[in-house]
Amino acid sequence: MTGSFIAFDGPNGVGKSSAMKTVAEALGSSGRDVVVTREPGGTKLAEELRGLLLDPSHPMDTTTQLLIFNAARRSHILDVIRPNVEAGRIVLCDRFISSSLVFQTLKPDGGPDLSVDEVLDAHRRYCFNEMPDLTVYLHAPHEVRAQRIAHRAGAPVDRFEEYDDAFDRAAADRFALCGALLRSPYAMIDASPAADEVAAACLRVVEGHLAGAKIARQEVRAVV
C-alpha cells in the first residue's frame, strides 16, 4: 500500500485529537496500517522536549520555543514519520508545522514576534522542509471552542492553553491562513457540529486523499 503523512491542526478546542483518533480507528478497521503520533513528541527525545515546551513554569521566548520545536521535529521526522511512510503506513500526526506558524509568530498579546519567514526558514534548514501530504484544519467560532475548553475544568493547562481570548482569536485567524502560506494540500473542516459528524467529515476527506494519492502515484510510476 502507498504510505502518506497527514496532519491534523487547528486552534485549541476544535476537537482535532478526538477526530484524528476516530479516523485512525476507521482506517485501521478497513485494513490500513496506521501510525498515530503527535507534536511535539513521537520519539523519546521529542517527548522529553515536549515536557519542557509545554511546562509554563519554564519561561521561554518564542525563539527558544522554535529552537526546541525544531530539535523535537527533526527527531520525529527521521525516526517516525519518514520510516513509516516509506514502509507504506498512514501516519496521522496531531499538529505539525502549522502550529509553529501560529504559536511562534504571535505573542500572547496578539502582537508580532517571529516572522512567518523565520519559522519557515528554520523548518527548511533543520527539518528538511518536510510537509504533510495533507493537512486537515478544524475550525469553529471562538464561542464554541471556549465552551468546550471550559468543560475541561480541572485538567492541567500547558503553555499554549493559558493565553487570553484576544490571543486565541488571533491564533484561530492565523490557522485559517496556514494552508495558503505553506502551499501544500489542505482541507478545512467545520468543527462546530457534534464530534461524530466532525470525525465523519474528516474521514471522508482523508479517504478521498488516500484514494487520489494512490492513483496519482500509480500514474507517475506508469509514466516512468
Automatic annotation (TrEMBL):
The keyword Repressor does not apply. Residues 8-198 form the Thymidylate kinase-like domain. The keyword Kinase applies. Keywords: ATP-binding, Kinase, Nucleotide biosynthesis, Nucleotide-binding, Plasmid, Transferase. One of its GO terms (molecular function) is ATP binding. SUPFAM superfamilies: P-loop containing nucleoside triphosphate hydrolases. One of its GO terms (biological process) is dTTP biosynthetic process. InterPro entries: P-loop_NTPase, Thymidylate_kin-like_dom, Thymidylate_kin_CS, Thymidylate_kinase. It holds the Pfam family Thymidylate_kin. It catalyses: dTMP + ATP = dTDP + ADP. It comes from the Bacteria. Gene3D superfamilies: P-loop containing nucleotide triphosphate hydrolases. Its EC number is 2.7.4.9. Coiled coil: none annotated. One of its GO terms (cellular component) is cytosol. Belongs to the thymidylate kinase family. Phosphorylation of dTMP to form dTDP in both de novo and salvage pathways of dTTP synthesis. NCBIfam families: DTMP_kinase. This is Thymidylate kinase.
